[in-house]
Write a structure and sequence with these properties.
Radius of gyration: 13 Å
Cofactor: (R)-lipoate
Pfam family, one: GCV_H
Number of helices: 4
Helix content: 10-25%
Strand order of the largest sheet: 1-2-3-9-8-5
Family: Belongs to the GcvH family.
CATH topology: OB fold (Dihydrolipoamide Acetyltransferase, E2P)
Distance between the termini: 15 Å
Order of helices and strands: EEEHEEEEEHHEH
Keywords: Lipoyl
CATH superfamily: RNA polymerase II/Efflux pump adaptor protein, barrel-sandwich hybrid domain
Largest sheet: 6 strands, antiparallel
Mean pLDDT: 92
Number of domains: 1
Strand content: 25-35%
Protein name: Glycine cleavage system H protein
Shape: globular
Structural class: alpha+beta
């Protein structure tokens, strides 16, 4: 599992881990819990360009259908096909094996994202 304090977050409940100019993106455990049992994940294709704030995928659960928003603009360089094949990973390991996409992006974009304290405050103190 990632160090949750080293991650960045969005108001749409995505987490972002930076490794140089590659950002790994997933949904938070808070979002996964609110969705319920995830049964389907649709992700953009490798090579697709995504724009920050735009819908780039879909996550379906037994309760509802949610949209995956691109937290940053850039090119999709990897998708987690394991999570597509086994969507339950989004629930069981949201911050690890349940990651969704990797985006090649400008690391300066981090300034527009939330830190852990701001994200916890956004969710009403629920972690």
């Amino acid at each position: 599992m990632n160090d949750l304090n080293s991650l960045k977050y969005t108001a749409e409940h995505e987490w972002i881990a930076f490794d140089g100019e590659t950002a790994t993106v997933g949904i938070t455990d808070f979002a996964a819990d609110k969705l319920g049992d995830v049964v389907f994940v649709e992700l953009p294709a490798v090579g697709d360009t995504v724009t920050a704030g735009d819908v780039c995928g879909e996550i379906e659960s037994t309760k509802s259908v949610g949209e995956l928003y691109a937290p940053l603009s850039g090119e999709v360089v990897a998708t987690n096909e394991t999570a597509v094949d086994d969507p339950s990973l989004v629930n069981s390991d949201a911050f690890g094996a349940g990651w969704l996409i990797k985006i090649a992006t400008d690391a300066a974009a981090v300034d527009a994202l939330l830190d852990r304290d701001a994200y916890v405050a956004l969710t009403g103190g629920e972690e």
